[in-house]
């Protein structure tokens, strides 16, 4: 039921008038809400031109506050995904091992770190670095943020890798065995390369989660990323809180929206591709974390696994 | 060994109780708002569809931390919205719930929409053939089946929400993460134990939710 217009008939004359009525009502309600919000903002002086103009007129807002903040956000996110990827692959492959003494610890680590809020990991890492290492207090928040993100996301990526490998038809393993490959060879030459195409959309979606979570470091650990710039801007440009939040949120939305579009494009390309199995591990639409959903094995050869399509 | 756990000084159970309350209120609110959003996104009125899509895309791509901090610094400190006033703690708590509902509802909406996708087309076609209107099709035929299919995805949303409530610490709501921050700073000789206690607390909250709702989702699933 992907085409949701199946839920209602093509509108006739009565339905058309009714739809117009609903539209008008909706516009009125929205207009009231917007007017109410603007009235409150005007009342508190947040609509005044000088609160918003710096973002257009004064390039120093961008060069001293916003862009360095955005750079820190992206730096932490990039470090986190680059470090988390190898760990995630190791844990994911570990969970698929034939040996219980590898599978069980890998599973325990993955389930443990997935069950814990990433903020707790950051707070703990921050304090641990303060006590047991001589990392410069200036850069410690970055280390803490990246550590927290790596611990959490490595376990999420492990699940994505596992789901990706499990989504491949069993014939691939059989064929690899038939030509005499060992287990390690099967994994690294046959299964993982194919799983990468399947997992790519989910990995990019996870990058969105990572970018969003860096903001926690700004709010709790004093990591100078984009969100934490709000306070510096309002301190320098006359309490323009609403304007500053709007601009910062907009930048986050744009960055994440770009990433999401890339993920969607990768997903539809993988679905169309004739080479692969057609199975794609997309983002779990309802979740904040990338999928632990393992698609069903394709039945019969060439049968594509379609998720959610009906 | 556990002498760092001075329950007179640190209200551990109280902090986790606040976490539970945040989760429950936000879950109820986002379930309602998320269902409304999902209905908008599939409705025959183009403007409502556009609004639903825009809201979901914007909210999902904004960090939760930005939303929560904005409710406190923006809504409360700047615009003076206190949601019926009260003490500092009450206002912070209600603003946090507001932020969580606004954010989590988008994930609820997307889950329900994917649940609607699992209902066979024939169901809606048959309903329309009987002459049911859009609201009747949705209310009597599609949503009851969709809800049964989305218990598992919604369980994931609920677990993510439970973990996300820690973000309320950024605006000083005295829940588990804020207490942990205080404790790792004060009890520096036992930070591993402090972390273990809080980690255990969250596992205790999320694990039964997952198991229980996983069982429920199997029970109520529509057999096809």
From TrEMBL, chain A:
The chain crosses the membrane at residues 20-42, 62-91, 112-130, 142-168, 189-211, 242-264. It is found in: Cell membrane. Belongs to the binding-protein-dependent transport system permease family. SUPFAM superfamilies: MetI-like. The keyword Transmembrane applies. The keyword Secreted does not apply. It is a multi-pass membrane protein. Keywords: Cell membrane, Membrane, Transmembrane, Transmembrane helix, Transport. Residues 70-263 form the ABC transmembrane type-1 domain. This is Amino acid ABC transporter permease. Residues 273-310 are annotated as: Disordered. InterPro entries: AA_ABC_transptr_permease_3TM, ArtM/GltK/GlnP/TcyL/YhdX-like, MetI-like, MetI-like_sf. PANTHER family: AMINO ACID ABC TRANSPORTER PERMEASE (PTHR30614:SF21), MEMBRANE COMPONENT OF AMINO ACID ABC TRANSPORTER (PTHR30614). It comes from the Bacteria.
UniProtKB/TrEMBL annotation, chain B:
InterPro entries: AA_ABC_transptr_permease_3TM, ArtM/GltK/GlnP/TcyL/YhdX-like, MetI-like, MetI-like_sf. It is found in: Cell membrane. CDD domains: TM_PBP2 (cd06261). Keywords: Amino-acid transport, Cell membrane, Membrane, Transmembrane, Transmembrane helix, Transport. Residues 16-213 form the ABC transmembrane type-1 domain. It holds the Pfam family BPD_transp_1. It is a multi-pass membrane protein. The chain crosses the membrane at residues 12-40, 61-79, 91-109, 190-216. Its main location: membrane. Belongs to the binding-protein-dependent transport system permease family. HisMQ subfamily. This is Amino acid ABC transporter permease. It comes from Streptomyces zingiberis.
């Amino acid at each position: 039921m992907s085409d949701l217009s199946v839920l209602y008939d093509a509108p006739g004359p009565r339905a058309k008038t009714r739809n117009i009525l609903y539209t008008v009502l909706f516009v009125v309600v929205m207009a009231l809400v917007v007017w109410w919000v603007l009235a409150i903002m005007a009342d508190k002086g947040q609509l005044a031109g000088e609160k918003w103009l710096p973002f257009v007129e004064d390039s120093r807002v961008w060069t001293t506050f916003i862009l360095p903040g955005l750079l820190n956000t992206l730096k932490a996110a990039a470090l986190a995904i680059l470090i988390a990827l190898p760990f995630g692959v190791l844990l994911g492959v570990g969970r698929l091992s034939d040996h219980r003494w590898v599978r069980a610890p890998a599973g325990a680590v993955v389930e443990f770190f997935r069950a814990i809020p990433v903020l707790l990991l950051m707070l703990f890492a921050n304090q641990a670095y303060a006590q047991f290492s001589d990392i410069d207090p200036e850069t410690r928040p970055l280390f803490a943020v990246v550590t927290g993100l790596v611990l959490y996301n490595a376990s999420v990526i492990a699940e994505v890798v596992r789901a990706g490998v499990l989504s491949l038809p069993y014939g691939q393993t059989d064929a690899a065995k038939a030509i005499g490959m060992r287990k390690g060879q099967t994994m690294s030459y046959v299964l993982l390369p194919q799983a990468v195409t399947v997992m790519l959309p989910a990995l990019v979606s996870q990058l969105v989660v990572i970018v969003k979570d860096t903001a926690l470091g700004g709010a709790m650990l004093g990591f100078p990323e984009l969100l934490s710039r709000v306070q510096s801007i309002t301190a320098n440009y006359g309490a323009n809180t609403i304007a500053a939040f709007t601009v910062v949120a907009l930048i986050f939305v744009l960055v994440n929206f770009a990433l999401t579009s890339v993920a969607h494009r990768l997903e539809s390309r993988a679905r169309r591709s004739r080479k692969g199995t057609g199975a794609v591990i997309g983002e779990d639409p309802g979740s904040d974390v990338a999928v632990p959903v393992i698609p069903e094995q394709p039945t019969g050869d060439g049968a594509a696994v379609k998720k959610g399509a009906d | 060994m556990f002498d760092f756990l001075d329950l007179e000084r640190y209200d551990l159970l109280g902090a986790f109780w606040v976490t539970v309350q945040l989760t429950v209120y936000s879950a109820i609110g986002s379930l309602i708002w998320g269902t409304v959003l999902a209905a908008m996104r599939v409705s025959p009125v183009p403007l409502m569809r556009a609004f639903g899509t825009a809201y979901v895309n914007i909210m999902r791509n904004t960090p939760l931390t930005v939303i929560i901090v904005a409710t406190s610094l923006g809504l409360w400190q700047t615009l003076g919205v206190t949601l019926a006033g009260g003490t500092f703690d009450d206002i912070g708590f209600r603003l946090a719930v507001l932020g969580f509902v606004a954010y989590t509802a988008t994930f609820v909406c997307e889950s329900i929409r994917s649940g609607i996708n699992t209902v066979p087309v024939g169901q809606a076609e048959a309903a329309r053939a009987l002459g049911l209107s859009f609201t009747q099709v949705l209310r009597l035929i599609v949503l009851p089946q969709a809800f049964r299919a989305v218990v598992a995805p919604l369980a994931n949303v609920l677990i993510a929400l439970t973990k996300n409530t820690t973000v309320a610490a950024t605006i000083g709501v005295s829940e588990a993460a804020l207490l942990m921050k205080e404790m790792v700073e004060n009890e520096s000789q036992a930070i591993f134990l402090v972390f273990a206690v809080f980690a255990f607390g969250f596992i205790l909250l999320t694990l039964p939710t997952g198991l229980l709702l996983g069982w429920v989702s199997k029970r109520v699933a529509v057999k096809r």
